[in-house]
Structures
1.
Amino acid sequence: MTKIDYIGQLLIGGENNLRQNTIITIDTINRNFQRLQENVSGKNGYRDEILKQETLAIIKLAYINIMATINEMYGENMPETYEGFDKSQIKQSVVEADKRLKQEIITEEKQNAETRRTNNEYRKLHVSPRLPIQEVRRKYGQYLKLAIATLDEQIRKGEYNLGKNRTEGKILREKARAFELLSDPEYKMKLDELLLFNFSPNQEKLYMPKYFTEITYIPKKTQTVIDKQTGEQIQKLNSMKFGDILAGDQSEITAIHVGDLGFGRFRKPNGNVTYRDAEKVKMYIILKHYADQELAAKRKERALDPNSGTRWDLQTDSEIFLVTGNLHENLLRRQEIDREFIRYTQEVLLSTTNLDEAIQYNGGYIGEVGLTQDKENYVVTHDREALCVSREFENAGKIADYRVGLETKAIKYKLDQGIVEIYDRNGETGNIEKQVISKAKDKNLLNSNSGER
C-alpha cells in the first residue's frame, strides 16, 4: 500500500503567503482531488493495475473523510465552495482518526498472530487457502474495482458519512495489508506450509538437559555406484529426491543421509556406560532448490548471513539444512507405498517452515511421519530421546566452535565431563587424529594425538 500522505496532499492550499497557508476552499480541495487522481491513473501514472486501483481507493477515502469532517464541523453553516476557511482543525481531526485506524489494524494483526491457521490473509481477502498468487491478485483486483465504484457513488451523491467511511477504510486497509503479505513469496510459502500442519514444529519443551551421559556421532561411509550416463564409478552417500520443479512443484528437495547420532547412559567407574544406542536418530543434509526466483533470492540472502541456521550451495543454487530425524527411506522406496505418505513427507516434514523451526528450537530435529491416534491421517511425531540427542549434538558443536563440517567427523561428547572428542582421518597419513576440547577450559585444546583406529 502507498505510503504517501494523501490527506495532506488534498489539503494543500493555493496561497503562497505564509499567513494564508491555513486557509483553504472546497474548490481547492476538489482541484487537488482531481489532480491526485490524474497523477495516479493518467498517462504518466502507475503501470501496475493493482497499485493504481489501491491508491485511487485510498485517495477517495481520504477525500470523503475530509468532506465528512467539514460537514460535521460546520453543519448548516457549511462554507460556499469558493469561501475560505481554516483547515487546521479539520486536518488534525482527519489525521488523528487515520492514525487510530492504522493502529487498530496493527494491534489486531498482532493479536491474531497466534491464530493464523484460521485467521489469516486468505480469509481477509475471502479467497481459498493456498491459492496461487496470480489468482489472489485477480480476486483482489475485483474487490478494488467494486470498492472504487462504491466510493465514486458516495462522492457523486455527496454522501459523506464518517462512520460508514471508517468501516470501508478499515476493510480496504486490512485487505491491502493481506495482499501485501501474500505478495511476499517467503511469507506466502510459510503460511501455505503452516496451513498443512496438524502438529507444532516447536518441540523445545521436550528437551531435558543432561538426559544422557554421552552422545556419539558416526558419519556414514560412501558407497560405490555406477554413473548411468558416464559408466564411471563414483562415491556417494544414500540420498532421496522429492519434487520436480519442471512438473510444477515449488521446490526440489534432496535428502542425504550423512550420519547417525547415538547416546550412552550411566557412567561406570571404569569409564564405560551401562546402556548405549548408537543409532537413535539419523543426520541429514537437506538441499532445497526453489522454483520462485524472488523466494530463492530472499532465502539465499538469509542463508549467507553468518548468523543463519542454514547455508547456501552456490553450485546447485540450493539452500542447505543440516537436520536430524527419520525419513523412513525403506518405506518411501516401496512401489506400493501410499502416495499421501510421500506427499506429506515432502510438503510437511521437509517443508522450509518445519526445517527452520527444527533448527531454531529442536537442535535440528524435524521428527518423523507417523499416524494420528485414529490412524486416519499422517502427522509429524517427535521422540524425546531423539530431540535431546540432537540438542546435545548442537551443544557439542558450540563447544567445538565448528560452524561447518562437523557432520563429516566422528564425535563423542561426554556431557558429565564437559568434553568433546573429535576424530578425523588425516588425508596424508591415513591416521585417525583425535582432538579433545573442554567446555570447562574455554574451548582450549587439551591434547592432540594420532593413531590407527
2.
Amino acid sequence: MKQIILLLGLILSVVYSEAQDNNRNSIKGFYKVYYQEKNSETDSYNVLIKNIIDYKDEIKFSMKISNKTGDFIVCKSSENKVIIDNTKLEVIGKTKTIKPSGDKSITIKCERGSINRQASFNILLDGLYKIKQKPKSIKVADFEIPMTKKDFKFGKVHCNVSIPVRKTQKMIVKIELRNDGDEYIIIHPSRVGVEMPDGKTYASKNSEEEVLLAPHKTKKITLKWDRMPKGGLNDMQKVDMGINFNDVFYYAEITKLEATKIKIEWDKQLTIKKQ
C-alpha cells in the first residue's frame, strides 16, 4: 500500500513540475505575439518560416519552400502540424506544387484554442512529397486538324481541345486535361509537335517545360506555332496537320519525404515594439 501511495505521489509531482515549467514558459499580457523567422535545410529543399504571429487564439505564418531537386515537390499543408506543449495541432493551408529548382510560398493558419502561448513551439513538416517522372512515356495517338472531334482520351485522362487562333502563320491550340485517375502525370508542352505537309514536325513554342497534373484535378495547357517555312505549302489556315504527342505525357511515382521538425522561438523585442 505504501509503495502505491509513493508511486502516485511521484506521478503527481512530475505532472505538477511539468505544469509549472509550462506556466513559466507561457507568454501573457500581449494581444499579438511575434516569433523569430527560421530557416531549415535538407538535401531536397530549403524552407523559410517567417511572419510568425500568434493572435488571440490563432497562429499564422508564411512558409517558403525552395525545391533543390530536379523533380516536382508537392506540399500537402494540411498534413503538417504545429506542436505546442507536446500537443499536435491541425493546420489549415493549401496544397502547393513546387517546380524543379523553383520555390513557392504558403500561408498557414492554426487554431491554438485553450493552450497557453509558449516562448517556443515546433512546426512539423510532414506533408512533403517528391514526384518523380517514370522513364517510359505514355503513348497517345495523333490528333488531326481540321478537327473531326474535339476531345481525346488516354488512360483515365480526358482531354478537350479548342483552336482559338488558326491563321496562315499562327496557330494556338488549347487543351484542358481532366485526370480521373489516382496517379500524378507530368506533361512536357514544349515537346508537342505539329506535322506539316513538308514532312517535318515543328515543336510547340511553350515557356513551360514541365507541368504537373495531380490526381482528380484539371489542368490547361496552351500550344503555339508561328512563322512556318515554305509559304503556302505550310499555310496553317488551309492545310491538314497532325498534332504529335511523342514523349509528352508520363506517369510519376510519389515518395514521401522525411518529416522535419523546426523549432520556433519568441521574438520578445519585436513583440513589445509592435504593441
